[in-house]
Amino acid sequence: MDPFFTGIEPAVATRMAGLSRQMFELRERHKELLEQLDCEDAGAVLAAIRAGRLPEHPGYEAWLALELMRERQQAARELLDWHCRHIRDDAEWPAIADGVPDDLPAAFLAHPPERHLDGLGLRGEDGLEVLARVLTPRDWSFEWRRGERSWRLDTAPVSHAGLAVGSPHLHLPDGAVIAPDLDIQADVRKHVFEIVLQAIADGRLPSSSE
Q1: pLDDT score, position 16
Q2: Residue 4: CB partners within 8 Å, gap ≥ 6?
Q3: Phi, psi at residue 184, to the nearest 5°?
Q4: Does 15 have pLDDT greater than 70?
Q5: Both 11 and 65 in a single domain?
Q6: Cα 107 → chain centroid
Q7: Mean of per-residue pLDDT scores for the chain
Q8: Is residue 171 part of a domain?
Q9: Burial, 49: exposed, middle or buried (Cβ in 10 Å; 0-12, 13-18, 19+)?
Q10: pTM for this one?
Q11: What pLDDT does residue 4 have?
Q12: Residues whose CB is less than 8 angstroms from the CB of residue 70 and which lie 6 or more positions away in sequence, other chains included
């Protein structure tokens, strides 16, 4: 074991090593994504999307990913710092949000959520696959697929006919972009998860613009 962990309980050392590894992976993926986008930071990515220099998608998902990875890296750093000050194996661990909502719709309970570095993957019935990135109650994106058809519901700050910039809008399998018939007013991000995931599971969002 790394000499850094000398004198530390093995279970605690394992947890600390896992946090260090996660921080490294987040940092490297964050740097790699910025290089791919040819942007200095997440703010520059969002500015490029608004100005049309980067495409709305997957540009907006890339911006959400950058901010979510930064947030997770900070959370891991704070937790690692806590462990450095509480190195006993019997120390009470602080709670840390892992991005999974408290109550998933029943349609998604058969498969465990997949925690990605930059989002949350879910699988439901009839081959339903969802990738959710929720940064704040106002900044989020849900992508889902059933068979060959795919949808995207998001709040990218891009203009679409008849829709306010940054308002929730639904990209349909036929290429149309419409306002969803769904009330997504929420004060905390877990409510965004609950509202949108339930609507996806229930099939309440349209499959075409007709």
Answers
A1: 80
A2: none
A3: -115, 35
A4: yes
A5: yes
A6: 20
A7: 87
A8: yes
A9: buried
A10: 0.85
A11: 52
A12: 30, 42
Same domain, 117 and 81: no
The CB-side HSE value for 183 (13 A sphere, CA atoms) comes to 2
Closest CA to 16 of 25, 5, 24: 5
Asked whether residue 208 is domain-assigned, the answer is: no
Q: How does DSSP assign 23-79, residue by residue?
A: HHHHHHHHHHHHHHHT-SSHHHHHHHHHHTSS-HHHHHHHHHHHHHHHHHHHHHHHH
Average pLDDT over residues 124-151: 93
More confident residue, 8 or 161: 161
Supply the pLDDT for residue 150: 95
Q: Which domain holds residue 25?
A: 3-85
pLDDT, tens only, 164-206: 999 999 999 999 999 999 999 888 888 999 999 999 999 888 7
123 bridge partner residues: 129
Please name the residues in contact with 150: beta carbons below 8 A apart, sequence gap of 6 or more.
Answer: 143, 144, 173
In the beta sheet, which residues pair with residue 140? 134
Residues in the chain: 210
Same domain, 112 and 156: yes
